């Protein structure tokens, strides 16, 4: 194998609940490799864990991402961090969770992948400078969605998954012996539409900086545009990612999009929603 360099990755950025998962699943179905082990949001667990580690060492989280700036501004720590990821994470057996056993046996190193590949994680929006240290030729896709729709979706998701209060009431005696782990909601900040909307603003502002700086190495699209005109947008995405698919396959994929998901906020009052 030698030291042959692989193809640069496609890194998907954008706010949570903005269509990053839907878009990534579409690209995967057309030939973009995005990892073997993925969660329900179609995020590679391998790169998830690294982004978790990057944010946690700064005291940050997905809903409080700004502390990562302290790491990025510290040249010495940033270089050591990138070197650790490059020399340990990307080539160790841990990479099997991304490559799978067969690809790991063949490549032994994620950076040697010779197929169109990449990964999706909204937190890439803030950790991207470090990923570009590792993959300077990476291509970036930013998908953005109307902020009110994102905020409403975050609140709904957080409350639908918040079973902690019911469990707490049902098994109160258990907490006499073991302290409860985690909060009663997925994110206190995103338990209100106003708080979730402010987080959307942070993500969009950060992503826009990357798009401006990277010029032709960044592809920006709107969720609403992808939903309304998939037959036009998907071929452009494939070309940007280096993925080749015939017209028949592209048409079949485009027909699967639910166009009713665009601009859900227009079916309600934007002012009343934000005033919550």
Key traits:
276 residues, alpha/beta, Rossmann fold, four-stranded parallel sheet, 4 strands, globular
Roughly how much helix do the residues carry, as a percent range? 40-55%
Number of strands: 4
Shape: globular
Number of helices: 13
Taken in chain order, the helices and strands follow as: EHHHHHEHEHHHEHHHH
Report the structural category. alpha/beta
Q: What is the name of the CATH topology?
A: Rossmann fold
According to CATH, the homologous superfamily is P-loop containing nucleotide triphosphate hydrolases
| Total tally of structural domains | 1
Brief rundown of the structure:
The chain is α/β, with parallel strands linked by helices and 276 residues long.
Describe it for me?
Helix 4 (75-89) crosses helix 6 (124-134), helix 7 crosses helix 9 (193-214) and helix 11 (230-241) crosses helix 12 (247-254). The protein has a 4-stranded parallel sheet, with helices on both faces. By secondary structure, the chain is an alpha/beta fold. Residues 269-276 have low confidence and may be disordered. The radius of gyration is 20 Å and the shape is globular. Helix content is 51%, strand content 7%. The protein has helices at 20-29, 45-56, 68-73, 75-89, 96-107, 124-134, 147-160, 164-170, 193-214, 223-228, 230-241, 247-254, 270-274, and strands at 10-13, 118-120, 139-144, 218-222. The protein has a single domain, classed as P-loop containing nucleotide triphosphate hydrolases (Rossmann fold), CATH 3.40.50.300. The relative contact order is 0.17.
């Amino acid at each position: 194998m030698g030291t042959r360099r692989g193809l640069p990755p496609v890194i998907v950025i954008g706010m949570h609940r903005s269509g990053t998962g839907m878009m990534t699943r579409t690209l995967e179905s057309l030939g973009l490799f995005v990892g073997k082990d993925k969660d329900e949001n179609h995020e590679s667990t391998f790169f998830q864990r690294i982004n978790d580690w990057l944010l946690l060492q700064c005291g940050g989280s997905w809903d409080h991402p700004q502390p990562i700036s302290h790491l990025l501004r510290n040249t010495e720590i940033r270089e050591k961090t990138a070197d650790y990821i490059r020399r340990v994470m990307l080539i160790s057996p841990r990479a099997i969770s991304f490559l799978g056993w067969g690809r790991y046996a063949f490549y032994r190193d994620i950076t040697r992948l010779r197929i169109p590949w990449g990964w999706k994680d909204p937190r890439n929006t803030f950790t991207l400078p470090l990923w570009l240290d590792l993959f300077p030729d990476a291509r970036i896709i930013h998908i953005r969605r109307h902020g009110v729709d994102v905020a409403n979706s975050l609140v709904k998701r957080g409350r639908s998954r918040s079973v902690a209060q019911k469990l707490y009431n049902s098994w109160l005696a258990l907490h006499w012996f073991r302290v409860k782990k985690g909060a009663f909601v997925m994110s206190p900040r995103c338990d209100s539409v106003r708080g979730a909307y402010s987080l959307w603003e942070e993500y969009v502002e950060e992503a826009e900086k990357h798009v401006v700086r990277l010029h032709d190495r960044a592809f920006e699209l709107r969720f609403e545009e992808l939903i309304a005109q998939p037959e036009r947008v998907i071929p452009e995405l494939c070309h940007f990612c280096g993925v080749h698919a015939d017209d028949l396959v592209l048409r079949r994929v485009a027909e699967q999009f639910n166009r009713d998901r665009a601009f859900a906020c227009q079916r309600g009052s934007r002012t009343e929603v934000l005033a919550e």
